[in-house]
Write a structure and sequence with these properties.
Blueprint lengths: L13 E4 L14 E8 L3 E6 L8 E5 L3 E4 L1
Antiparallel strand pairs: 1-2, 1-5, 2-3, 3-4
């Protein structure tokens, strides 16, 4: 499990993350790119920067975040 420094998560930060199993991703290892819009206690609300998914939003758990740019 990758642990990210939660103090680095703030608005407009770019993150790379994986979709959780409950979303039934076809490729669990695929990385998704998003921009943090808001931060909660254990999740962030992101806007997708992934080609073909630009502008879509979703919640991402801290545990699903792989890296922070």
């Amino acid at each position: 499990m990758i642990v990210v420094d939660e103090s680095l998560l703030c608005e407009n930060v770019i993150i790379w993350y994986r979709l959780p199993p409950r979303q039934l991703p076809k490729n669990r290892l695929k990385l998704w790119k998003g921009k943090v819009l808001r931060k909660g206690l254990t999740i962030v609300f992101v806007e997708s920067l992934q080609e073909g998914y630009e502008g879509q939003t979703e919640y991402v758990a801290f545990g699903d975040i792989v890296s922070i740019e």
